[in-house]
Design a protein that fits this description.
Blueprint: H1 15-21, H2 32-36, H3 47-56, H4 58-71, H5 73-85, H6 88-93, H7 97-120, H8 123-129, E1 131-132, E2 145-146, H9 147-161, H10 169-182, H11 197-202, H12 211-224, H13 257-261, H14 279-292, H15 303-310, E3 312-313, E4 329-330, H16 332-341, H17 346-358, H18 360-367, H19 373-384, H20 391-404, H21 408-413, E5 418-420, E6 432-434, H22 435-454, H23 457-471, H24 479-504, H25 511-518, H26 530-544, H27 551-565, H28 576-601, H29 606-614, H30 616-621, H31 629-649, H32 655-668
Helix pairs in contact: 1-4, 5-7, 5-9, 7-10, 9-10, 10-14, 12-14, 12-16, 14-17, 16-19, 17-18, 17-20, 19-20, 19-22, 20-23, 22-23, 22-24, 23-28, 24-28, 24-29, 25-26, 28-31, 29-32, 31-32
Length: about 700
């Protein structure tokens, strides 16, 4: 590029790039390299600029791919970089800006070329280009040196050993980004790579001893969130020969070079993203996640995953078992704080999921925290704004909740944390609510969104599994949370009757039934008159009488009949049988959640009993349903018991008086009358879905 290159449009005709990619071999000791590396070219800061850079240099790259096997110029450039890194630490201590600047530029060119090479050729061809023999450049004999492994080891040393200063910030980002590019080989292969060059170099040989130190450094980079130095804080003076060394180190890479080395932002939304506060932390996190998810080698497990699975708290004085390799310690309090603060990015959420799922030390520490709201609230906010998040982010947030709710201590403690003024929850003003009740509200909202929009079976199954995990520990449910549990169940009960009617009687026009469903508001509240409720109950009972042990066969026959009756139409009939199965599954899980709460913590939840009594007409309709008879026994018992006590208390009772009667009745209700278990094999179990 040289000292005069400052614009992308200048690159195709740049004399230094032409020489690098030409047919003439350039020795690593040639003064040409100092000229090439003395450029003030700002790094791309967006996908658009990256595309322009690639288009401008395509002719240069093609020439280099063609000529490099004979000239060995790429290997010579790498040799220049490697020789400079040996003095990098001393240069940082001596504040040698120019030396670090040129070394950074060398790595920048190597990284850009590496990206092109990985996109255009196989791993075997890539290794050929990185092979170097000083005596005869381009003649790749068995004695030639493979520089790729040496380059990777050098990058790992640079990341872990070079002190992070203002003048070394950008080259640290560059080194991490180059490793991310190197590991991008998998993107260009359909099959999983198990014997790739990444396994060859990173999982054995001289790179292996750096495993724990690299993982620890990347984690601390994420934790510290170091910001780049101020723009223009390092301006190199003009040289007397007009070399033009004006170059702000922070102006390029620090403000967005990470986009270049995540291959143009693949996997993120195509929109102008805000400037990252810490490119170093972001790139460190990306590299850490890529390393953790490398497949195991055929003869050895992934050492980086082993390191992530086994590291401990700095306050843990116990010794590591000899069977655990690559172990290290890190400050868990700082890690926890960083994870709580960074959950707006899906990368940070994936790291949290990885640590909770794979590192038992981290999971135990987090579950023992007394400020879990700092972690749970950002996760709930992700689910609450499900429309704005990508599906992977939502899944990871949900699975994190699922992992947390597998712990009974967590399920108890979240109901003891009282929150005030949750501003991002807009459905209703929540001036004071427990963390547990808020979690219930957000999860039910997520289920409802999924059932009406995305209709993803895994999503609603995992949501319901999280509620099922919590249900036995429900404590002092907020009245709105209790109301939403019951009203959401009722919504599906009504929908079930409607779909069943359409399935059995596709040509009927029951005005009463249509009126009942047209009278439902969007949030699931019942607006039916008492007369309509009695008619609907009678109609539902007649529908349920059609069901028997041959339930599925009856549905199948009804579906076939429906399809046959509209075969002449071009419009495919609705799949009511499939809808009915999904609705029935949701109803059963919701009923089991209610039943679990009533069985294990009835005395802690008068608001749930109140909401159940308010909707008792609809629940009573399903007492005779063959699929719900077992689970309805406890619910029916609670409804009957408390209804009789309310009847004895007289009419026109206030809300406060009803709740008082419920609290008194809870003490009087013998616990042994409630069945502790439902039919074997029907309890909902978590369906752990690992985001891909």
């Amino acid at each position: 590029m040289g000292s005069n290159s400052s614009r992308i449009s200048d690159l195709p005709k740049n004399e230094y790039l032409k020489k690098l990619s030409g047919t003439e071999s350039v020795s690593e000791n040639d003064p040409f390299w100092n000229q090439l590396l003395s450029f003030s070219f700002p790094a791309p800061t967006s996908s658009t600029e990256l595309k322009l850079l690639e288009e401008a240099t395509i002719s240069v790259c093609k020439s280099l791919v063609e000529n490099n096997p004979r000239t060995g110029n790429l290997a010579a450039l790498i040799k220049v970089f490697l020789s400079r890194t040996k003095e990098l630490k001393l240069s940082a201590e001596c504040q040698n800006h120019i030396f670090i600047w040129q070394t950074h530029n060398a790595l920048f060119i190597i990284c850009c070329l590496l990206k092109i090479f990985i996109c255009e050729m196989s791993e075997e061809e890539l290794q050929l280009h990185f092979t170097y023999e000083e005596k005869s450049p381009g003649s790749y004999s068995s004695d030639s040196e493979d520089l790729l492994e040496e380059l990777l080891c050098c990058l790992m040393q640079l990341i872990t050993d070079i002190p992070l200063l203002d003048i070394t910030y950008e080259i640290s980002v560059e080194a991490i980004s180059t490793m991310v590019v190197f590991l991008s080989c998998q993107l260009f292969h359909k099959e999983v790579l198990r014997q790739s060059i990444s396994h060859k170099y990173l999982m054995r040989g001289p790179c292996l001893p750096y495993t724990s130190k690299l993982v620890k450094t990347l984690l601390y980079n994420f934790i510290r969130q170091e910001k780049p130095p101020p723009l223009g804080s390092h301006v190199f003076p003009q040289q007397s020969d007009g070399g033009g060394l004006l170059y702000g180190l922070a102006s390029g890479v620090a403000t967005g070079l990470w986009t270049v080395f995540t291959l143009g932002g693949v996997g993120s939304k195509a929109a102008a993203s805000p400037e990252l506060p810490s490119p170093l932390a972001n790139q460190s996190l990306l590299l850490l996640l890529v390393l953790a998810n490398l497949t195991d080698a055929p003869d050895a497990p992934n050492p980086y995953r082993q390191a992530i699975m086994s590291f401990k708290n700095t306050q843990d004085s116990s010794s590591f078992p000899s069977s655990i390799p690559h172990a290290f310690q890190i400050n868990f309090n700082s890690l926890y704080t960083a994870l709580c603060e960074q959950q707006t990015s899906d990368q940070a959420t994936l790291l949290l999921y990885t640590l909770l799922h794979q590192n038992s030390n981290v999971r135990t520490y987090m579950l023992a925290r007394t400020d879990m709201e700092n972690l749970v609230l950002p996760i709930l906010e992700i689910l609450y704004h499900v429309e704005e998040r990508n599906s992977h982010h939502v899944y990871m947030a949900l699975i994190i909740l699922l992992i947390l709710t597998e712990d009974d201590g967590f399920n108890r403690s979240i109901h003891e944390v009282i929150l005030k003024n949750i501003t991002w929850y807009s459905e209703r003003v929540l001036t004071e609510i427990s963390l547990g009740s808020l979690l219930i509200l957000v999860v039910i909202r997520t289920i409802q969104y999924n059932m009406t929009r995305t209709r993803d079976k895994y999503l609603h199954t995992n949501c319901l599994a999280a509620l099922a995990n919590m249900s036995a520990q429900f404590r002092s449910l907020h009245q709105y949370a209790a109301q939403r549990i019951i009203s959401y169940t009722c919504r599906h009960l009504r929908r079930y009757v409607y779909v069943l009617d359409k399935l059995y009687f596709p040509h009927s026009h029951c005005s009463t039934l249509q009126h009942c469903f047209s009278a439902l508001s969007d949030n699931g509240e019942e607006l039916l008159s008492l007369t309509c409720s009695h008619i609907l109950r009678s109609y539902a009972a007649s529908l349920f009488s059609l069901l028997s042990k041959k339930h599925n066969k009856v549905l199948e026959q009804a579906t076939q009949s429906l399809r046959g009756s509209v075969s002449s139409s071009d419009v495919p009939p609705p799949d009511y049988a499939q809808d009915l199965n999904v609705i029935e599954e949701v109803i059963r899980m919701m009923l089991e959640i209610i039943n679990s709460c009533l069985t294990n913590s009835l005395h802690h939840n008068p608001n749930l009993v109140y909401a159940l009594l308010y909707k008792r007409d609809l629940f009573e309709q399903f007492q005779t349903h063959p699929s719900f008879e077992d689970i309805m026994q406890n619910i029916d018992l609670v409804i009957t018991f408390f209804s009789s006590r309310l009847l004895q208390a007289g009419a026109e009772l206030s809300v406060e008086r009803v709740l008082e009667i419920i609290k008194q009745g809870v003490v009087a209700l013998p616990k042994d009358r409630l069945k502790g278990e439902v039919t074997a094999g029907t309890s909902p179990s978590p369906c752990l879905f690992t985001p891909g």
